[in-house]
Design brief:
The protein is α+β, with helices and mostly antiparallel strands and 278 residues long. The protein is 18% helix and 28% strand. The protein folds into two domains: 130 residues, no CATH class; 137 residues, Gcn5-related N-acetyltransferase (GNAT) (Aminopeptidase, 3-Layer(aba) Sandwich), CATH 3.40.630. The longest helix is centred in the C-terminal third of the chain and has 15 residues.
Length: 278
C-alpha cells in the first residue's frame, strides 16, 4: 500500500460510517487532529483504504486488490476490519491474535466525586505538557493519538487530578469524532483506589456532553477493572466486536518478501500476548 497525503484522500463517506462510536471514530479523529496516516492500494480510485493512528488501524474496501505483503506496515497494530480481510492478514503476519472488545456508550449522568484533600481536578492547558511527559514511560500510549504530551495538553480535551505538582490520574478524549468521543484514562499505581479516575472521567464526560457529543468507552472483555469503572461512570454496553493484534511480517520462501508465506499465521490465545493498554 502507498501512503496518501490528506489532499489525496477520496471522499470518506463511502469508506467509513460518519458519527461512529469507539475506535471507529479514528477515521474522523485523524483529519481533525492532524495525527495518524492514510494508506491505499493506489492513489487514484483506490480499492482498499486504511487509516492508522496510535497503533490502531481501520481497514476498508476490497482485500483482493492488495499485493502480497501490502499490509506489512501494520505489524504490532490493533486492526479492526471486516472478516474478508482475515486471509490477507493471515498471509502477511506470523500471527494474528483475536481480541474481544466491549464498546460502551455513556447513558447515565453521574456526579463527579469530591477529590481527596490536596487533590485538584481540572482541564489540562498547554503549560501542563511537562507534567504529562513526566508520567511513567509505559503511559506514552495515553497521548499517542495526539502526537505526544504537548498535543494532548493543548487539545483542551483532557482532565487530570493533580497533587502538589504532579499528575495523579488522567482522562482524555482518545479519538475525537463528530458525534462520539472515545475516551481513555490512567491512574498512577500509587494513587489507585482513591476514585481519582472516576473524578476525571465524570468531569470529562460533562465536558463532552457540553460540546453536544457523546462519550464512548472501549476496553478488553477481560479487563474487569475498566468495565467496572465504565459502569460506575454511567456507561452502558452497546455492542461487542473483535479486533486483531498483528505479529511480525511472516517469513517468505527463499528469504524474500513476496510470494507465498513460508509458514502460516497462527491465531494465538489471548493469554499469549500482552493486554492492550486501553
Amino acid at each position: 500500500m502507498i501512503e496518501l497525503a490528506p489532499d489525496q484522500l477520496p471522499p470518506l463517506a463511502r469508506w467509513f460510517a460518519a458519527g461512529a462510536p469507539g475506535a471507529a471514530a479514528l477515521a474522523e479523529h485523524v483529519p481533525a487532529s492532524g495525527t495518524g496516516r492514510w494508506w491505499a492500494d493506489r492513489a487514484h480510485a483506490p480499492r482498499t483504504l486504511a487509516v492508522a493512528c496510535a497503533g490502531h488501524v481501520l481497514l476498508r474496501g476490497d482485500p483482493s486488490a492488495l499485493a502480497p505483503d501490502a499490509l506489512a506496515a501494520f505489524d504490532a497494530h490493533y486492526v479492526q476490519a471486516p472478516s474478508r480481510f482475515l486471509p490477507a492478514l493471515g498471509s502477511t503476519f506470523d500471527r494474528i491474535v483475536p481480541w474481544e472488545r466491549m464498546l460502551y456508550v455513556h447513558q447515565v449522568p453521574v456526579a463527579a466525586p469530591r477529590p481527596p484533600h490536596g487533590v485538584t481536578v481540572r482541564r489540562l492547558v498547554p503549560a501542563d505538557a511537562p507534567a504529562l511527559a513526566a508520567l511513567a514511560p509505559d503511559t506514552a500510549w495515553l497521548h499517542a493519538s495526539w502526537g505526544g504530551p504537548a498535543g494532548l495538553a493543548a487539545s483542551g480535551l483532557c482532565w487530570a487530578a493533580f497533587g502538589t505538582d504532579e499528575v495523579l490520574a488522567v482522562a482524555c478524549t482518545y479519538f475525537h469524532g463528530t458525534t462520539y468521543e472515545d475516551i481513555a484514562c490512567y491512574t498512577a499505581p500509587a494513587h489507585r483506589r482513591r476514585r481519582l479516575a472516576l473524578a476525571c472521567v465524570t468531569s470529562l464526560c460533562q465536558d463532552i456532553a457540553g460540546r453536544g457529543h457523546t462519550p464512548s468507552w472501549t476496553c478488553s472483555r477481560d479487563n474487569r477493572p475498566s468495565r467496572l469503572l465504565a459502569w460506575t461512570a454511567g456507561f452502558r454496553l452497546a455492542h461487542e466486536y473483535v479486533h486483531y493484534l498483528t505479529g511480525k511480517p511472516a517469513r517468505r520462501d527463499g528469504g524474500g518478501t513476496s510470494g507465498r508465506p513460508g509458514r502460516p499465521a497462527s491465531t494465538e490465545s489471548l493469554g499469549d500476548t500482552p493486554a492492550p493498554q486501553r
